[in-house]
Amino acid sequence: MNSQAGGNSGTLIFVVDDEPILLELATFILEPLGYRLKTFRDPDVAFGEFRSANHPPKLLITDYAMHQMNGMELLKKCKLANPGLKTLLVSGTVSEDIYRDSAIKPDGFLAKPYHANQLSDLVESLIGK
Fold first, then answer.
1. Which of 45, 10, 101 is nearest to 62 (CA)?
2. Exposed (0-12), middle (13-18) or buried (19+): which is 27, by Cβ within 10 Å?
């Protein structure tokens, strides 16, 4: 077990991506560090669960390009519902320019493809070890 794992004490992270393999990858990288992940392929379902959660996630990791709604739309809806939420936008199709003029911005951006340590380091910088 990773020596850092105890510090996260099961911090909840929502991960939203319409590609199942990328949800599995995030789980594979972050669960061993002690984070609890709830994964969603549908951003509408993720937002519904976010709004009704008794204990909302500390972090939302969302892909940008999804069929139902894009990651920026999901991120804005979640931040309006919970302004303290930390958010990470992940994309292989757009750059950080996509939200330059947006009133609500993600707390972090990660370009695909990424290395495991890039994701884990960014998550730890956003919500702590």
1. 45
2. middle
Is pLDDT of 93 > 80? Answer: yes
Q: Domain for residue 127, yes or no?
A: no
| Domain assignment of residue 82, yes or no | yes
- The model's confidence at residue 6, banded by pLDDT at 50, 70 and 90, is very low
Residue 76 lies in a domain: yes
Strand 36-40, strand 12-16: pairing: parallel
Domains: count for the chain: 1
Q: Which is nearest to 40 in space by CA: 54, 56, 60? A: 60
pLDDT at 129: 63
Residue 36 token pair: 């609890």
Q: ∠ CA(37), CA(111), CA(73), 5° rounding?
A: 65
Within 10 angstroms of residue 43's Cβ, the number of other Cβ atoms is 25
Per DSSP, the residues of 68-102 read: SS-HHHHHHHHHHH-TT-EEEEEESS--GGGGTT-
- For residue range 66-82, what is the model confidence (pLDDT) as tens digits? 988 999 999 999 999 99
